[in-house]
Design goal:
mainly beta, OB fold (Dihydrolipoamide Acetyltransferase, E2P), 5-stranded mixed beta barrel, binds zinc ion
Length: about 140
């Protein structure tokens, strides 16, 4: 089925992320001065204000920080309701918003805070491959 949702519009700042995603790589910006990863991409490190930012290939792993079941949505997302959005604590640091895959939105009690997730990419167009996260391990402990 063709991707029918709004597509991201890469900028010079975010183009490396989308180039990586297209190649199946999960790239994150990391400050060369304080070594901390941040998300979303910025020209200036939000932790130490350095302008020395480099893209690193991250593991694509993380854990669910929190989640919500979406019962209403618009455009192409409407036909996917209910679906689960989440914030992921990335293994390398910082947090990313996503849509969770492989979870049952009708049974939110089956989703665990802290559950281990892994990134996967969906080709939305020739150039845009969108990252989603899938639960790979149910429990945090
Ligand atoms: Zn920094």
């Amino acid at each position: 089925m063709a991707y029918n949702k709004p597509l991201p519009k890469p900028s010079p700042l975010t183009q490396p992320f989308w180039d990586g995603a297209k190649a199946g790589k999960f790239l994150l910006p990391r400050c060369e001065d304080c070594n901390r990863v941040h998300w979303y991409p910025r020209h200036i490190c939000p932790f130490c204000h350095s302008m020395s930012i480099q893209w690193i290939e991250a593991s694509g792993e993380g854990r669910i920080h929190t989640y919500a079941v979406q019962f209403r949505a618009f455009g192409g997302w409407a036909e996917d309701t209910p679906f689960v959005t989440a914030y992921i604590d990335l293994a390398e640091g910082d947090r990313m918003a996503t849509v969770l895959r492989g979870v049952d939105a009708s049974r939110p009690e089956s989703i665990s805070i802290g559950a281990k997730v892994k990134v996967e990419f969906e080709a939305a167009s020739d150039d845009i491959h969108i990252p989603f996260f899938r639960v790979v391990e149910e429990s945090a402990s």
